[in-house]
């Protein structure tokens, strides 16, 4: 309901009113000679508190003091700092041959005498109009609303006000693609914070004021409001060539902290035109109702693999070099994922920095929260919609570690040790399994096990080689998922997403769908006789590929085939709809994937699932 235009407009009006009121109060206080601010940061888990304020001489003080220290020591230190600041200011005035000291600071000189060194000002802390005793510990003395007095100057103490610890705009901005700032907030919440977007009126046209340089260009741009007062801004074609500025005030719904402004380091670039996912977004304009779970599985192509000579010359020689750059691809990935309005998103080949700096800010702004599991150079990420689910627990494993140490896989390991060459290859692989148990926010009895993986890939003849390795990894995965969904959380349904690097004709797919695989299956010898390892496997799930068996989910110059799946528990879930994949014409517009209109060599699987 909160997405309805009328409600959103009302929220914007309320936020604007709050911001205007805050600004008016600040101006009123300033006009009335109101108190300065003294900001205190005091966190129980840290031994020290910080205190920051501006002295009368204009210098800014940041102090770190033990929370267990008596207040009197801090006040004495403040008095010393104030005295030093006064002395520096006096020396500066004298060097400039300024007029006699007319400030109200304390002085030890008499009438008509030479200027003398100022005395230490009286420094006191008051709470509810009573002086705080100097033997009170810092942790108890510095309360929100207290008043610090330094000489004739008074400061209002703000303890743990909302504050930004990090604020960053993307390095590459394109028209038609959402700009999601990376926010680090302490004692605040993005939902309680205020945002206002500006754009250059004319790029670099205005001359700077004398002595005021711009960090961005030789000239200072003038700014006009965009009218957008939300966390995310999507530039239009009219913004091409312009820089953006974000004015934001941290808040917690009741208090507002100090505002900050941030200007983009780049100008808005033109977008690529129609992308492969634009038509798919027509099916996913709204978030699904509570009875449904829109699920996405997507290998987004790790930057660590896209930015190699092998990738540029062998894997993707047809792709424009700039379209392989991470900053470019991140714009497409963010727009594609946010446009699906998904409830659960499972991603593979996620760089750690991409997760924290790109995916988390973008998806968090659209109501999703995520967890990450590193493999080696990249890993897995699972996001879930916070309005629908909360994270109950995580049960991630590394396949080779679990196989060697977990008693769940004792029988499988006993079979594998009979084939030393195969065992060695299996235990060398770094593949991992991410398992998250989610609980419905509307009905606590509804829980679901979401698994996410990326099975081993040989990079050559994907569907022919290393099939036995993927079979064993899948056996470990299913045994572990069964333990979580049957032993730890009895009878909860399973959604198993991933890039399984296996076509529907392989042993891995046969094993998942049919529940067993015989010891004479050809995949046990997929790497030749030397690594042959014949064994039979069984599992007890009843699984189905929710999106069926598409002609391909991976389309590169030398290969195309279906490698990605969303496997679901048929006993508890059913498929409501499958979002159509891009047409073959769309996929091959630029020969193959990735391309200027598609950020990965894989295609996202998207479907709406329904609780039975």
Automatic annotation (TrEMBL):
Annotated InterPro entries: CCR4/nocturin_mRNA_transcr, Endo/exonu/phosph_ase_sf, Endo/exonuclease/phosphatase, PDE12-like_N
Molecular function per GO: metal ion binding; poly(A)-specific ribonuclease activity
Coiled coil residues, start to end: none
Cofactors required: Mg(2+)
Annotated localization: Mitochondrion matrix
Entry superkingdom: Eukaryota
Reactions performed catalytically: Exonucleolytic cleavage of poly(A) to 5'-AMP
Alphabetized Pfam families for the sequence: Exo_endo_phos (PF03372), PDE12-like_N (PF21171)
GO biological process: one example: cellular response to dsRNA
Span of domain 2',5'-phosphodiesterase 12-like N-terminal: 161-269
Biased composition (Low complexity): 100-115
Catalytic activity, EC: 3.1.13.4
Stretches assigned to the Endonuclease/exonuclease/phosphatase domain: 297-602
Stretches the record annotates as Disordered: 89-115
GO annotation, cellular component aspect: mitochondrial matrix
Keywords of the record: Exonuclease, Hydrolase, Magnesium, Metal-binding, Mitochondrion, mRNA processing, Nuclease, Phosphoprotein, Transit peptide
Family under the similarity heading: Belongs to the CCR4/nocturin family.
Protein name, per record: 2',5'-phosphodiesterase 12
Species assigned in the record: Aotus nancymaae
Gene label: PDE12
């Amino acid at each position: 309901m909160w997405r309805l235009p009328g409600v959103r407009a009302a929220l914007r009006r309320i936020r604007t009113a709050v911001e205007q009121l805050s600004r008016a109060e600040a101006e009123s206080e300033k006009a009335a000679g109101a108190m300065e601010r003294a900001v205190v940061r005091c966190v129980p888990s840290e031994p020290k508190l910080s205190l920051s304020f501006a002295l009368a001489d204009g210098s800014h003080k940041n102090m770190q003091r033990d929370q267990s220290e008596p207040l009197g020591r801090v006040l004495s230190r403040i008095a010393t700092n104030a005295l030093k600041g006064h002395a520096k200011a006096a020396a500066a005035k004298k060097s400039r041959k300024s007029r006699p000291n007319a400030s109200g600071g304390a002085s030890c000189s008499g009438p008509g005498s030479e200027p003398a060194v100022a005395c230490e000002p009286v420094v006191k802390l008051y709470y509810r109009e009573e002086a705080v005793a100097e033997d009170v510990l810092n942790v108890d003395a510095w309360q929100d609303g207290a008043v610090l007095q330094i000489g004739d100057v008074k400061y209002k103490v703000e303890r743990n006000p909302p504050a930004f610890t990090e604020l960053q705009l993307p390095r590459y901005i394109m028209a038609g693609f959402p700009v999601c700032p990376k926010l680090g907030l302490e004692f605040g919440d993005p939902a309680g914070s205020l945002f206002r977007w500006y754009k250059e009126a004319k790029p670099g046209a205005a001359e700077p004021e004398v002595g005021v340089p711009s960090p961005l260009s030789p000239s200072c741009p003038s700014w006009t409001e965009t009218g957008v007062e939300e966390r995310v801004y999507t530039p239009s074609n009219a913004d091409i060539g312009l820089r953006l500025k974000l004015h934001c005030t941290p808040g917690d719904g009741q208090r507002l902290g100090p505002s900050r402004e941030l200007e983009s380091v780049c100008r808005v670039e033109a977008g690529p035109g129609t992308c492969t996912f634009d038509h798919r977004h027509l099916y996913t304009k709204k978030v699904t109702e509570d009875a449904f779970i829109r699920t996405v599985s997507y290998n987004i192509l790790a930057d660590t693999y896209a930015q190699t000579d092998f990738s540029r010359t062998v894997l993707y020689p047809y792709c424009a070099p700039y379209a392989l750059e991470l900053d470019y691809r991140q714009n497409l990935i963010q727009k594609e994922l946010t446009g699906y309005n998904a409830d659960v998103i499972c991603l593979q080949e996620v760089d750690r920095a991409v997760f924290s700096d790109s995916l988390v800010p973008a998806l968090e702004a659209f109501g999703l929260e995520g967890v990450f599991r590193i493999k080696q150079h990249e890993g897995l990420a699972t996001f879930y919609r916070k309005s629908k689910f909360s994270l109950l627990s995580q049960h991630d494993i590394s396949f080779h570690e679990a196989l060697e140490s977990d008693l769940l896989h004792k029988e499988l390991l006993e079979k594998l040790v009979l084939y030393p060459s195969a065992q060695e290859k299996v235990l060398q692989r770094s593949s991992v399994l991410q398992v998250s148990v989610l609980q419905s926010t509307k009905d606590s009895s509804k829980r679901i096990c979401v698994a996410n993986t990326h099975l081993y890939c040989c990079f050559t003849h994907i569907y022919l080689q290393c099939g036995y390795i993927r079979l064993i990894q899948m056996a470990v995965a299913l045994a572990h998922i069964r333990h979580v969904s049957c032993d730890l959380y009895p009878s909860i349904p399973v959604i198993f997403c991933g890039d399984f690097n296996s076509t529907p004709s392989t042993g891995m797919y046969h094993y998942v769908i049919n529940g067993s695989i015989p010891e004479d299956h050809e995949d046990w010898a997929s790497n030749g006789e030397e690594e042959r390892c014949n064994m039979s496997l069984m599992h007890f799930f009843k699984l189905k590929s929710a999106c069926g068996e598409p002609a391909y989910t991976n389309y590169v110059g030398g290969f195309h085939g279906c490698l990605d799946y969303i496997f679901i528990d048929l006993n508890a879930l059913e498929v409501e709809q499958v979002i159509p994949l891009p047409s073959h014409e769309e996929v091959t517009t630029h020969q193959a994937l990735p391309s200027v209109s598609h950020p990965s060599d894989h295609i996202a699987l998207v479907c709406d699932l329904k609780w039975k």
